[in-house]
Write a structure and sequence with these properties.
about 475 residues, alpha+beta, about 15% strand, globular, disordered N terminus
Length: about 475
């Protein structure tokens, strides 16, 4: 009996050390989680990180690592508030779905039913098309991000409304902030309060989120920590090594439905629990609708659901949110599991390793995600073996098939971390797997340019435009290359 008592005491001590709120996971799971996160922090040079694991409706692990503020030598605590950037869109999806659940808004209705004075070509775009980024609207971010641009919201909005549509609504995907400005105005109007207050009253408070708010670098917020990024050029000069710098975030109030929140891993975990326990919706069907992918005009599913990204798999599906290349949370509805990882480094991309982390809590999850399976193999064998590894995994499992979008997104994340050769191999694999897609040639062409292979890049852009004559960006790049 004394041996059992000592063992229980040991387990409880471990739970206290690692901030495990409910001792239902093993010490081995905690240790592997710790090892993986420290490995990724070292490789990605992440200053500070928080993690929360939700299993069976409870937070089973909550932990903080590293430095919240490097200059002041302040460590990350469980109350440190991280910028979650575009993860905010998932909250906007919930806010709209609450209005749908109450009968105030219809997903298939045109935006013109709810907002007046919109350009004629905008009026038929549906609420669902706004949420899933297939609207084709001109992106206000492209306008306000121009060097030296310093105009008011009204001026920026007027300029956006006179810009041409990017494509026919429902035909393509384009990540677009204009969509979420419009959604914010709908929330203002039909919740009867400004969207910031609506989020607080209808999501933060019911979920018990005490360390969550809206803000950017110009707001003074207790417990909010700075964000960092590595840069390779400074004052017009190329640096010998990437330099860690503070990252200044600007989120004008009208854009904060898209990327304006700060939170903690614990608060986000509580919000996910509230969602799944039907504390934020009136009907059980609302959550299923929230996480259901949209559709293109041809009937094919979009990658996005309502403010969330879908990761459809034969088993162990996931719905996710990512923001700023520094924050991510994954929910595995069929496995009663969710994982939140927040960092203070832009470009750390925690979404790359969350499925691997989930594998410690359900081993089948890591194997179920093709990109994770590829990534884990290529870490060991080298990215130049991408095609060979794919064939081996396909032979072992006939159902193994990474999606074009997932491969493309992964390759861009790898490229953004300065790993141009590794990214090139992923783009090439995507081209081999999806030879009829105009977008894979466009992306591969861009990667070839990053690797100073101009002539090959020209051929890829030509192939892309042949498959999609409406690839206007590809046309502009090709014209520039041919004039050089």
């Amino acid at each position: 009996m004394w041996k059992i008592s000592i063992f229980r005491t040991f387990i409880l001590a471990i739970c206290m050390i690692f901030n495990i709120t409910d001792p239902v996971i093993s010490y081995g799971q905690v240790a592997r989680t710790d090892d993986l996160l420290r490995r990724e922090m070292k490789e990605r040079r992440i200053p500070g990180l928080q993690v929360a694991i939700v299993q069976k409706g409870k937070i089973v692990l909550l932990r903080s690592y590293g430095m919240a503020d490097i200059e002041q030598a302040v460590p990350v605590s469980n109350h440190s508030m991280f910028s979650i950037n575009s993860c905010t869109k998932a909250f906007t999806g919930v806010a709209i779905m609450q209005l749908v659940d109450e009968g105030k808004v219809a997903l298939q209705a045109p935006v013109s039913r709810y907002l007046d004075s919109l350009p004629e070509k905008w009026q038929a775009v549906t609420i669902r098309q706004l949420l899933t980024h297939v609207s084709g609207l001109p992106d206000i971010l492209h306008i306000i991000s121009r060097p030296g641009y310093n105009k008011s919201e009204q001026e920026a909005w007027a300029e956006t409304m006179t810009a041409p549509m990017e494509f026919t609504t429902g035909e393509q995907f384009s990540y677009n902030q204009t969509n979420y400005v419009l959604l914010g105005r709908i929330i203002d109007k039909f919740s009867g309060m400004p969207f910031i207050r609506a989020f607080e009253e209808r999501q933060f408070k019911p979920a018990g989120m005490k360390h969550t708010c809206f803000g950017d670098s110009y707001d003074v917020i207790p417990d909010a920590i700075p964000t960092y990024r590595y840069i390779s050029r400074l004052y017009g000069e190329t640096l010998p090594e990437p330099k860690l710098t503070r990252n200044v975030e600007e989120f004008p109030p009208y854009r904060r439905t898209a990327s304006g929140m700060k939170s903690t891993a614990e608060d986000l975990a509580r919000w996910i629990i509230a969602l799944q326990k039907q504390q934020l919706f009136r009907t059980a069907a609302a959550l299923d609708t929230l996480w259901k992918a949209g559709v293109y005009n041809n009937g094919q599913p979009t990658q996005w659901a309502l403010g969330w990204v879908t990761r459809p798999r034969p088993q162990h599906r996931a719905v996710t949110a990512t923001g700023g290349g520094r924050a991510a949370f994954f929910v595995y509805p069929d496995d009663d599991l969710a994982i939140v990882v927040l960092t203070n480094l832009a470009g750390s991309y925690p979404e790359d390793f969350i499925d691997e982390l989930a594998g410690f809590y359900n081993p089948a999850i890591a194997a179920a995600d093709p990109v994770t399976a590829l990534r884990m193999q290529l870490r060991q064998r080298g990215y130049e073996h991408a095609w060979e590894v794919y064939q081996e995994l396909k032979k072992a499992n006939a159902g193994f098939q990474p999606s074009e979008t997932d491969l493309n997104d992964w390759a861009y994340r790898v490229q953004s971390r300065g790993k141009k050769k590794e990214a090139l191999e992923i783009f090439r694999l995507n081209m081999l797997l999806f030879p009829d897609s105009w977008n894979v040639y466009d992306s591969y062409g861009e990667a070839l340019l990053q690797n100073n292979r101009k002539e090959e890049a020209i051929k890829m852009y030509q192939k892309s435009i042949l498959l999609n004559p409406q690839n206007n960006n590809g046309k502009r790049v090709l014209e520039t290359l041919q004039q050089q």
